Amino acid sequence: MSLLWWSATAVAVFAFVFLAVRLLGRVSIARDSVLDEVRRTLRGGAVEQTPGRGPQARGRLGQLEITVDLHHDPRRPKQSPMWRVLAVGPVRLERPVEVRTIGWQGWIDPWMELSETRTFPLRGGPSLEVHSERPLTTEHPVLLALLRQSTALGTGALHARTDLMRAEARFHPRAEDNRGLFAWLQAMSDISESGSGQAHREGPARLARGARVRVFAPNQG
User: Fold this and answer.
1) pLDDT at 207 over 70
2) How many CB atoms lie within 10 A of CB 2?
3) Domain ranges of the chain
């Protein structure tokens, strides 16, 4: 009986280790494929190994300096790993704004939990939970940019303030299912472009000619 029990335990442990290694392998393959596509999307893009944080894709998107990596948050195990985006550059907002799709947990800036909350439905996508010091209209540059991406936007969150944006997006172990990340990147580019003086003078045509994010097509050259 004891031998049978130990044999069953050994088989169970082996199966668990095998599945864990296989899952980690799938995560690494998808991560590398998506980061390489981000690299090709960015001007002067590169994928760099950073000590303790793993690979990061870095480069320019329009006027923004972009960094993208895959992040594990021990406080949010159900959402980990997740894509994390840092954008530094022109963001002309008077007050900070944080937007989350319904169901996304946690805060990029915990202070935003004290701000006002409104919900905006998206056509063909998840509803948005908007947190700001004052109520926003759909003409606000952050909401306009996200509404443009409504059908492609995946679950996640965006925090925008003067000259800085951060975003989080759900990771999928199949590379082709991570298109939502690129919708968040496009929205961040549009937010930055919308605040430029020339964008105000030329209107929507300026955005149409601005930085555009590639449609994600993994394993293409």
Assistant:
1) no
2) 6
3) 32-209
